[in-house]
Amino acid sequence: MVDLYIPDPSGSRTLLVPYRGRLSKVYITPTPKDLYENHFHLFPPLRPGEKLGVNKRFWKMLVSILRIAIPSSTGKEAFLLLLHTFFLITRTILSVMVARLDGRIVRDLVSANGRGFLRGLGWWFTLAIPSTYTNSMIRFLEKKLALAFRTNLTRYIHDLYLNQNLNYYKFGMGLAAAVPSGSRAKGDPSSEAASGGADQLITTDLAKFCDTLSALYGNIGKPALDLIIFTSQLSASLGPLGTVGLYSNYALTAWILRKATPAFGRMAAITATLEGEYRKGLSRIGRDGEEVAFYDGGKREKGILLSAYQRLANHIHSVLKIRVPYGMTEDFVIKYAWSACGYGLMSIPLLFPRAGHAIASTGGLSLHVASRTENYVSNRRLLLSLADAGGRLMYSGKDLAELSGYTTRVYSLLASLHALEQNAYPVIAAPPTHTGKPFYDLGSVKGQIIIGPDHLLFKDVPIVAPSGGAGAERGGEELIRSLDLRVEAVEHTLITGPNGVGKTSISRIAAQLWPTWSGLLERPHYGPGGIFFLPQRPYLSIGSLRDQVIYPQTYAEMKSQGRTDAELMQILENVHLAYLPSREGGWETRKEWKDVLSGGEKQRMGMARLFYHRPRYAILDECTSAVSSDVEGLMYEHAKTLGITLITISHRPSLLKYHTRHLRLGEMTAAKSSLVRTSSLESIKRTQSTLHLASHGWQMTTVASASAQENMELDLEIEVLSKVLDDDVAQWEARLKQVQEQLSGKV
Ligand SMILES: Nc1ncnc2c1ncn2[C@@H]1O[C@H](COP(=O)(O)OP(=O)(O)OP(=O)(O)O)[C@@H](O)[C@H]1O
After folding, report:
1. Is the pLDDT of residue 79 over 60?
2. Does the beta carbon of 435 lie inside 6 Å of ligand 1?
3. Where are the alpha helices (DSSP H) in 195-205?
């Protein structure tokens, strides 16, 4: 129950899923990487201004998705489809048999043939058994087919979304939507991608797509077959005129309904987008409930949620309104016009029998009546079934339109993920207003990245925040023009600088979350002996207390490396969290850890992870800011004794004592200059100008040689602050005196 999966050297895994008190095993093979390369051409992005609906493009998109949903012509899905088809045909044949039998039973009744009537009833019940079984199987296979499609698509998307290329992060950042907003296709959900809307697309939209698709197969396949078989059955009794009448009726109905059908596909896509926005609002409150509660922000959040819901409700309301006239047309044509046409057709052989044909073949008046009744009853039943089949076929036009909406959304998700996977971004021209500095669009990323060396190197790398979604046309934002940084083993480096200068951005580029636009980036690989990143916001995963320490490893991997809980206990002691297993009820305890642990405990858990993984290099981003300074010091020293080279991002120069080098970013003097208010500080300003950082926005110093300079800088800061405060004290005293005089009535 503790292991989530058993890995296999081939890359496949056996998932262990608890089900009805037992462990059910699911064997999963990873999607081969070259399959994604091969499929890339199947998913060209939606073109600007592309018209979405049931058109040629829709069928192309559907075929591309079906290549994933039905991966082989001999696989399980193909078999299910075949079985489904078999039952659909069986049901049609059974319907014809029931119609004929119906006619015979009534004939025997009219002609008072008791034995024939009883025999007919016997057959009636005999046919009921396969008929009911067939109906149930059709419903079962339809759902099973939908589930099989969904499983295939979900696995494919998971492998594409959560992979080494970090597509989940890039998609959430909106990089997939890095096309100028004006040229995005209408109904294209990539704008949703910009705000991290993948969950709605992967869960609800995908499920709806699979359900609609599999239902549509039955809803189109079965009535189409019915139509052919019933028409051929009827044409024998209706004669050529009736048959022509039938076909003209189909054509006319299809034409009228096509003209009357509104853009259901686009409406379904918009509904799904609005559902996604509403859902995102709700999940944000669930995630950040504590913060919202502290601010007493319930009312504000309710307002935001209500407006999202209202947009959805308004849209659904307008769709419903559009459906009223369409529904009337549909019902009028299919139910009433078709039935009237059916009566008309049935009357042809009855009202205009071919001379002598009926009487000659029956040999008597009562038999003649009985035969006419039989014909009438079975024809009527066939015609009713025909009307029903035709109706379902016409109704499924609406389902098809809706399917086109879901298809667009699923296709767009797949196309976006494929584009991210192949790093295929459009080249965007710099706007005319953009002059003087390089333009950073995602289509022009040219940096070189080498993973594997035993050092971290940035050579002429610009630190740029990429912009996706609607901001793509503005290009990325340059934070540092060009960074040169080389960190070898035991060169513990502290990176400091004011807020928003780009400290975390350096680690994002090192971790390849953001692109390296130019220059050279070299870094160790992830994993043992490599590099480890501790992000600014502590992340606690779903799972047991043990899982928190060993994340992202699994218990199975931990055991396979021969590591024990005793070792984990030692690690928790090193981060002063040794009390946790006994307090929380052991290593197996599963809780919502992000709510259970305090801010400082979360950060210490992050350090515990670092000690567990023991990398060669670690980039620690402000990850001890909530830890008391004595424990912080112990943890830094311990990390160094484990042989971990620290690259720390922080605001606090107090951490300098654990490092040997100091990289300062930004113009620090700018922050201080706001404090320098009087001309009496001219001398201090002059001293500062000798300390300014290099013009390109960063400066590296080694702590030993620069300690005098660092000290001088700190002394200077103290001098500036005390001078400013001295000035303020004099002002406050003057003001106090004024107020006291006012109170005592002197003024
Ligand atoms: N996803 C993003 N898209 C665009 N700009 C971003 C993105 N993330 C961060 N930025 C911007 O990049 C700049 C640098 O951010 P970064 O997180 O590197 O700052 P920092 O130096 O680590 O600041 P702090 O000390 O506050 O953590 C900020 O102005 C920020 O607004």
Report:
1. yes
2. no
3. 198-200
CA dihedral 274, 278, 279, 280 (to 10 degrees): 100
Rounded distance between C-alpha atoms, residue 311 and residue 316, angstroms: 9
Q: How far is CA 24 from CA 9, 17, 744, in A?
A: 21, 5, 86
Nearest-atom number in ligand 1 for the CA of 468 is: 3
The finding on whether 502 has its CB within 6 A of some atom of ligand 1 is: yes
- What ipTM was assigned to the predicted interfaces of this complex? 0.94
Residue nearest to atom 6 of ligand 1 (CA): 465
Contact 298 CB / ligand 1 (< 6 Å) = no
* pTM > 0.80: yes or no: no
Look at residue 709 in the predicted model and tell me its pLDDT: 56
CA pair distance 181, 199, nearest whole angstrom: 22
Quick count: other Cβ atoms within 10 Å of Cβ 318? Answer: 12
Domains within the chain, CATH numbers bracketed: 1-30 (no CATH), 54-165+197-415 (1.20.1560.10), 442-665 (3.40.50.300), 668-743 (no CATH)
Q: How far is the CA of 506 from the centre of ligand 1 (A)?
A: 10
**Integer CA distances (angstroms), 448 to 35, 394, 457, 509, 515, in order:** 26, 57, 11, 12, 10
Q: Are strands 520-523 and 456-465 parallel, antiparallel or unpaired?
A: antiparallel
Rounded to an integer, the average pLDDT of 337-356 is 67
Nearest CA to ligand 1 atom 10: 465
Q: What is the CA radius of gyration of the chain?
A: 37
DSSP per position, 422-459: TT-----PPPTT--SS----GGG---EEEE--SSEEEE
pLDDT of residue 186 exceeding 70: no
- For 462-517, write each residue's pLDDT tens digit: 999 998 766 677 788 889 988 999 999 999 999 998 888 899 999 999 999 999 99
Q: Is 505 in the pocket of ligand 1 (CB under 6 A)?
A: yes
The residue contributing the CA closest to ligand 1 atom 28 is: 500
User: Is the CB of 503 inside a 6 Å radius of any atom of ligand 1?
Assistant: yes
What are the tens digits of pLDDT across the range 517-541? 999 999 999 988 899 999 988 899 8
Question: What is the residue with the minimal CA distance to atom 26 of ligand 1?
Answer: 499
User: Which of 195, 478, 505 best tests ligand 1's pocket when mutated (most atoms within 8 Å of CB)?
Assistant: 505
* SS3 assignment, position 352: coil
Q: Specify the amino acid at residue 96.
A: V
Structure token pair of residue 364: 């008597």
Rounded distance from Cα 501 to ligand 1 centre (Å): 7
What does the alpha-carbon distance between residue 695 and residue 463 come to, in Å, rounded to a whole number? 15
* Ligand 1 site, residue 607, Cβ cutoff 6 A: no
CA angle 513, 518, 519 (to 5 degrees): 105
